TrEMBL record:
Coiled coil: none annotated. Belongs to the GTP cyclohydrolase I type 2/NIF3 family. Pfam families: DUF34_NIF3. It comes from Glycomyces endophyticus. Signal peptide: none annotated. This is GTP cyclohydrolase 1 type 2 homolog. Transmembrane segments: none annotated.
Length: 259
């Protein structure tokens, strides 16, 4: 199953990649495939309830991009790690990461999925695959649209809600300050939509831009809803390649709630 997915994506495997088996292995028999944005315990429980024991996840299993916490948490008998690993073992789950390959496709399938959900397919700016020339709106209206379109229960934004917006950068997930700033600082970009960031970096930069009177806005969608649509669309495209087994997209719940 994993080989079929990798072959369909058709991108060279990075020399160093996180696209590895996180639980189980390639020789284990499986009976159904669950694609998901993040293999939370809740997602794993719902996959098992549907009879799906191969979980293909975009994000890590044990709370670190390169799974560096796995051995430490196991050695310390961390109760959260223990509950999750015991559930995986009990149900003989195979968990495989699918992160680098979907970002390395052209266009980036995660960015493309978010843009499609926002209604911006075809608005990509030539040569700048994360910048979109969008119909004129305001920062506040765009924030409301993004929350609805992406199912973001706890979206936040920085800037004047009446700021005119016609050019938007889209960087779902976590791209880091260097890449966030490179887009937001462009004079021809009005707003940047991101999944999350360190608040002392991108958020502070956007707040200072607003205080300086610059026409800039930042929309923080939340990591899960920012990448969910891209992974869902990827699952839809790959489902037809996996004949004979049930295949489903198991959405990750946005864990944040507003008071």
């Amino acid at each position: 199953m994993v080989d079929l997915v990798d072959a369909h994506l058709g991108v060279p495997r990075r020399e160093t990649t996180v696209d590895e088996y996180l639980a189980g292995g390639p020789d284990q028999e499986v009976h159904g495939v669950a694609f998901t944005m993040m293999a939370t315990l809740d997602v794993l429980q719902r996959a098992v309830a549907q009879g799906l024991d191969l979980v293909i996840t975009h994000e890590p299993l044990y709370f670190h991009h390169r799974e560096e916490w796995n051995a430490t948490l196991a050695a310390e008998a961390d109760p959260v790690h223990g509950a999750k690993s015991a559930f995986i073992a009990r149900h003989r789950l195979v968990v495989r990461r699918l992160h680098d390959a979907v970002h390395d496709t052209s266009p980036d399938r995660i960015v493309d999925g978010a843009a499609h959900a926002l209604g911006w397919t075809g608005f990509e700016r030539a040569g700048l695959p994360t910048v979109f020339d969008i119909p004129a709106t305001t920062l506040g209206a765009l924030a409301e649209h993004a929350a609805r379109a992406l199912g973001a229960a706890a979206l936040r934004y920085i800037g004047d809600p009446d700021l005119p917006v016609t050019a938007a950068g889209v960087q779902p997930g976590f791209w880091g300050f260097e890449k966030n700033r490179a887009v937001l600082a462009r004079p021809d970009v009005d707003v940047l939509l991101i999944g999350e960031s360190n608040e002392w970096e991108t958020a502070a930069y956007a707040a200072d831009a607003a205080s300086a009177g610059l026409a800039k806005g930042l929309i923080v969608i939340g990591h899960v809803p920012s990448e969910q649509e891209g992974m869902s669309a990827t699952a839809d495209r790959l489902a037809a390649l996996l004949p004979g087994l049930p295949v489903a997209f198991v959405p990750t719940e946005d864990p944040f709630r507003l008071l």
